Structures are given as C-alpha cells and as structure tokens.
Amino acid sequence: MFEGFFKPLSPVVGVTRKDDSYCYVSYDRLLPMAMPEICACQTGCLAGPGKTVIVIGINGRHQLALPSLRCATCQATWKAGLPDLVASGYWPATPNFETIYATDLFRSYSNIKLRAPGLSRQAFLGMLEDRTVVFGRTGPICGDTFQKAFLEWQHAEYRKENLCGGDPFTCYACRPQMHAVSVDGNRKLYRFATATSTDKGLFEGVFLAKDDDVASFVEDIHHRTHHVRGSGACGSSRLGAAREVAKKSGAKIDEEGLEIGVCRHGVLLMALNMFRGEIFAYPMYIQNAMATNNVGYFCSDVACKYWPYLQKVASACPEYSDLLHMHPLLSVMHAKAHQWTCEVKWSGRNQLGAGLTIGEEVEQVNAYLSRAGVCTKHMSKATRTDMLTVLAMEWNKRKMEHLDHYLAQRLRKTSKRVQAESTALQDMKTQLRVDEDTAHHWVRDVKEWVSVTADNRSSLEMKIQGLHLSLQQRHIDLYRKIDSSKKRQRARKTIQLEKARLMTAITSYNQLHPSQQLPTADELLQEDQFLWPWDCSTSGTTITADKKALFEKVMLLERLKEEEQILLKEMMRHWESLQGELRSLEHLAASLKDGSSTLQIPKGACDGLHSFVLKKADDLKGQRVRAKKMYQDFVYGIGELSEEGGESDEGMEGSAEEEEEEEEAGEAECWG
Questions:
Q1: Does residue 507 sit in helix, strand or coil?
Q2: Which residue did the predictor score with more confidence, 409 or 635?
Q3: Is beta strand 237-243 parallel, antiparallel or unpaired with respect to 22-26?
Q4: pLDDT of residue 382
Q5: Spatial distance between the Cα atoms of 151 and 252, rounded to a whole number of angstroms
Q6: Greater confidence, 600 or 518?
Q7: Is 89 helix (H, G, I), strand (E, B) or coil?
Q8: How far apart are CA 647 and CA 200, in angstroms?
C-alpha cells in the first residue's frame, strides 16, 4: 500500500525498499508440483526456474516457470515432463507445455455443466479472466484450447474407467434383463450447418451412434419396404412423430435433433442424430441395438402407430422379427391425447406385467439435455458429439450414485399407494353398487371391446370425427403457430366454415339415430376425450363412463401390485451387479499386482492403474454398504427412509469393515 491504496500483485511481482522508497521487482515463481530425488548425494539438489509456461486454474491465468533440479555434486539434472505434470494434477494443452491446465479446473467445469448444461465456455472463461484481473494478473484464455484440452482429459478419464471394465451407459438394476426401454426424439438439440470442422470426435460411437451406420440402416429399411408419406393421427391429436418417411428440413441445419433411448430408471443407454425428423426407422435402430439386453417393453409416444409399422418391416425383413418379442407400450401421459380405444389397448397402465412403467422417462433426460442446446447448436459436429457424450456420462454417474435410494423410496411409495388404491376401489364399488363378479364382468367387457379391430364406422361418422379433429387442431394452432393478425383472420374464417359443416353433419346423424344423440358442435369441442356412441357399442357391448372409470381403477391397482415385485427384482439385480463389479475389480487389482494382467501397458502406467482400481474398489465397497443398509431397512422395516434422500445416521456407527464381515451372513437372509 505504498502508493496510498491496496493493489493486488501478481505472484511474480514483489515490493522492495530502495533509497528510502519502494519499488517493484520481478521474481521467478515455480509451478507447485511433486519433484523426485534425482541422486543419492547428501548435499541436496538446487531447484531453479525452467521453461516459462501459462498455467490456468480456478483463479485464472498464471505466468509461472516449470521447476528444474540440478545436483551440485554429481551434476545430475531433472526437468518436468508429461508424467510428472499429470501425476501432480495438471493437464498440458500443447505438446511442448506452453499452456497447462489444472485438472481441478476441469472437474469444476464438469460439475457446473452437470447442474447448468446451458453454461457456455465463453461465460466460464470470462469468469476466469475476471478472477485473473482481480488477483493482479493479466492475459486472455483461449476458448478453443480450453475446450480441446477439457475433452481430451474427459476422454482419458473415460478410457481409464474402460480399462477397469466400467460402462457408463449401463444401468445396474437392468442387467442382465431390462424391463423396459423408452425412446423419444428431441428436436431442440439441432446443429447449424455453418459450424463445420474436419476433426473427428473423441467419443464417436460411444453414446451417439455413428451416422454412417444409422444412414445405412435407414436406407436398407426404406429400400426393402414400402413407406407411406405423411404423419398419423389418433384421437384429437396429429402425431408429428408418427412418420414412416420424411424429407430433410429446409432450414440451415445439419442434425435436426437426437433420438434418445433410456431405461425405466432414467439412465441414458444410447442416442442417434436425426437428419429427417422423427421417422420410425430411428427408434427401430435403437430397438434393434437394445435387443441383446432382453428388453421386456418398448415404450414410445406413438406406439399405436409404430408397432404396425414394425410388423410390416418384419414381414419384409425377417431378420428383424425378433423385435416383435418385445411388448409395445404407449406412454401413459401421451396416451391421454390419443383416442380412448387406443389408450385402453396400448397404454402402459393397461399392459399386463408393465408395473408403473409410464414410458415418459426420456422426458426427464430431454429436459436436462435440451438446456445444452443453446451451446451445442453452434459447435462443430465432433465437438457437439463429445460434449453431449460427456453430459450423458455425468448424468448417468449421478443416477448410479443414488440408485439404491431411488429404488427403496419408490418401493415405499408404491406400497403405500397399494393400500390407498385398494380402499378407493372398494369405495367405488360401493358407490356404483356392484359386486366382485359384476366388476370383473365390466373389466372383461372393456377388454373385449377394444380387442375388436374392425372399423365399422359409416362415412357420416368418419366425417364427424375428422371435422372434430381438424377443428381442435386449428384452435391449437391459432396462437401457437400463427403470428400474424391477417393470417389469424383467415384461419378463423376456415374454423367457422368447418364448424358449420360439423353442425350439419351432427344434425344429420341425430336424425338418423334418435336414441344416440350427439351434443352441439361447441359442446363437442370442449370435450378433451369424447366417447363416440358408435365406439361405445361395438360387438353388442355398451361402454359407459362408469365402466371406464372402474376399469381404470382396477388396472391401476394391478399395476401397483406388479410394481412391487418388479422393484424387488431390480433391487436384487442392483445388489448382484455391485457384487459382480467388485469381484471383477479385485481380480483386476490382483493381476496388476502380480504382473499377470493381459493389458499391454508400461510398468509405470500399470502401477498407476493398480492404484486407481484400488480406489474404485474402495468407493464401490462404500456404495455397497449403503445399498445393503438401505434395502435391509426397508425389507425388515427397521427404519423409515427420509424424503430428502439417503438414510439416517442412526445405527451406522459400525465401520465399513464390520459391515463387510457381516455381509455374507446377512446376504442370504436379506434376499431369502
């Protein structure tokens, strides 16, 4: 403060007194890192400055010198190399170490991206440059160099996990048998065609399927089968994703989005780039890739349209007939927008053995990945692939860390709902004055009704349903897609004309069927799910609103009871997966220690991998102890799971070693 105010100083600048005044002096500051013993001399080695480098950490940019050692007795010397920097927690961005990043900075950036996927690298590096100035330093930080170094470090971490046998895109509770796969498209993850690059992605084919493989699959399917243009319609909705074939978008974009597949626990399994919108061949590619996992149910928002398409393709391409062994499941929430007969037949609530699999699990992932679209749309193809893969791996890692609590919490809530819904079902039977036999008869009536696939509608009935669908869609598009008052005026005239035609058709129908009167056009358009009289009296069976309500209540109770058994099986699979992975790590650690490993890596790398395997095994033991405590507390009813997450600390005074000693004795009892 010799100038009268506080001023931050750079680490390489100091203050000294000279001739009754103060002045600045420069110093050589060495990069903090571990330095070896280069000789056995007793005099010690002298540490001096070596090459000047740029070091970037969480506090911004530094100008430091690489340390070098020299022994004054034997003249032995040492200079910092790549293994020394990596072992000390640094990652060189260039071959000659002109720029070095602290790996702690990469971890911080990865954690921030996990919680804020929309954060751009410019914003993050801008924060680092501001911190550089605050601490008395200057100098820019190159965004391209940072991004390339970060992705290279992430790829090295992935390869390290891969050497240990880990797969970031596998769910522990879904192997060796996966209960359900949910597939849906995400149109927000598009990429502008102007962002071009010739680089090849480091993570190509890891999470996102290779574009050439997908393109050849789609072309083969389209070449061998006949496809119909246009999108499908069901109930009051036009299904934009129900397309057999579509043209590439006319906008200046390359990839139009992602088609994503997840398990019922929200774990990302794989994805692919969409170039022609949401056509049926894309989910079929994912279904074909997941067929080796013994998938029970294939969930889709347009399952009612996709499954007939799959049957048509399987008849022309017999090698895909095994895909029909899966059970189709229409997403529960999307089913509300379909025709009611379609909902009863395809919805997950009415599929035997589906449990509470809703088929909407991919929506949670889409909400997370869509926030990254503001950044990835400007990236090159390779960088976008790498960044989306990194985000997907971080998402799955967090899912796996909390899987034990998720399963136990879900089982507890399901058990409570079984009791509540059983009481509600009995109350409904009492209110409707029906006994058990009558209730079973009503449920059978609904199932038999939807099993009739013949379309016996007359031309007038089809006209009424078509006008009703068209008017509902035009009302939705009036303010959602039309942004001009003149265009809205023309759209309102079209709505008035179609409403007049609908009123005329309703009048004609009411005259022909006095006992089955339809409401007015305005009343009809206010109904989200209207039961058409010609649909409610198929094959001599009349379906009323009471039968519909009772059927839905019975189906919900059946799915809840199935969910309890499914969750218990998934808990068992999770436990067995943890046990199997721990045994694999212990075997790998033993082979690395005695030199019997088949990995062709240098001795130093082998020692480092052995240390990493031991650490990973120790973390897995802790995760196994937590899972055992969580599952046993629920099975035995010892403790209540907290709503916030994790188990309470009561009864956890015992060490992990004591838990492991009791594990083999308690394992059979826990799952017996």
A1: helix
A2: 409
A3: unpaired
A4: 93
A5: 27
A6: 518
A7: coil
A8: 45
Closest CA to 397 of 102, 114, 107, 204: 114
pLDDT digits (tens, 9 = 90+) for 354-366: 999 999 999 999 9
What are 346's two structure tokens?
Answer: 């395809």
Q: Which residue has the higher pLDDT, 526 or 417?
A: 417
- Cβ–Cβ < 8 Å for 304, 346: yes
Band (643; pLDDT cuts 50, 70, 90) = very low
CB-based burial label for 229 (10 Å; 0-12, 13-18, 19+)? exposed
Q: How far is CA 519 from CA 183, 509, 530, 635, in A?
A: 38, 11, 10, 54
- Please classify residue 112 by burial: count the beta carbons closer than 10 Å to its beta carbon, then call 0-12 exposed, 13-18 middle and 19+ buried: middle
> What gap in Å lies between CA 524 and CA 604, rounded to an integer?
76
Residue 180 phi, psi (nearest 5): -155, 150
Q: Which long-range contacts does 379-383 make (Cβ < 8 Å, 24+ apart)? A: 379/191, 379/195, 380/195, 380/196, 380/197, 380/199, 381/191, 381/195, 381/196, 381/197, 381/201, 381/254, 381/255, 382/197, 382/199, 382/200, 382/201, 382/202, 382/204, 383/147, 383/151, 383/197, 383/199, 383/201
> Smallest Cα–Cα separation from 348: which of 339, 360, 362?
360
Residue 377 CA to residue 188 CA, distance in Å, equals: 9
Between CA 332 and CA 200 the distance in angstroms is 40
**Cβ atoms 574, 549 nearer than 8 A:** no
Select from 262, 73, 277 the least CA-distant residue to 178: 262
pLDDT in tens, 22-78: 777 878 888 998 888 888 786 777 788 888 999 999 999 999 999 988 887 888 888
Q: What residue ranges in 277-375 does DSSP mark as E strands?
A: 297-300, 327-330
Helices (DSSP H) in 27-142: which residue ranges? 82-87, 103-115, 121-134
Query: What tokens were used for 349?
Result: 């609530």
**What burial letters (b/e) apply to 94-108, b meaning 16+ CB within 10 Å?**
eeebebbbbbebbee
Whether the ω angle into residue 95 lies within 30 degrees of 0, i.e. cis, is no
Label residues 484-515 b or e (16+ Cβ within 10 Å = b): eeeeeeebeeebeebbebbeebbeebeeeeee
Tell me: the pLDDT tens digits for 81-118?
A: 888 899 899 999 988 889 999 999 999 999 999 999 99
Q: CB neighbours (10 Å) of residue 122?
A: 10
| Residue 294 in tokens | 């013994």
Most confident of 81-85, 196-200, 323-327, 626-630: 323-327
User: Rounded to whole angstroms, how far apart are CA atoms 367 and 375?
Assistant: 15
Q: Average of pLDDT values for 596-611?
A: 83
| pLDDT recorded at residue 636 | 58
The closest of 119, 206, 627 to 393, measured between CA atoms, is 206
Cα-based distances in Å from 594 to 147, 199, 484, 591: 39, 40, 75, 5
Radius of gyration of the chain (CA): 32
Q: What is the pLDDT of residues 317-328, one digit of tens each?
A: 999 999 999 999
Q: How far apart are the C-alpha atoms of 622 and 647, rounded to whole Å? A: 14
The predicted structure's pLDDT at residue 145: 94
Tell me the average pLDDT of the chain.
84
Distance CA(117)–CA(127), nearest Å, equals: 16
Helix extents (H) in 402-435: 403-432
| Burial of 445 from C-beta contacts in 10 A (0-12 / 13-18 / 19+) | middle
Selection from 385, 320, 332, 402 nearest residue 362 by Cα: 332
**Could you tell me the two tokens for 25?**
């002096």
d(CA 578, CA 172): 8
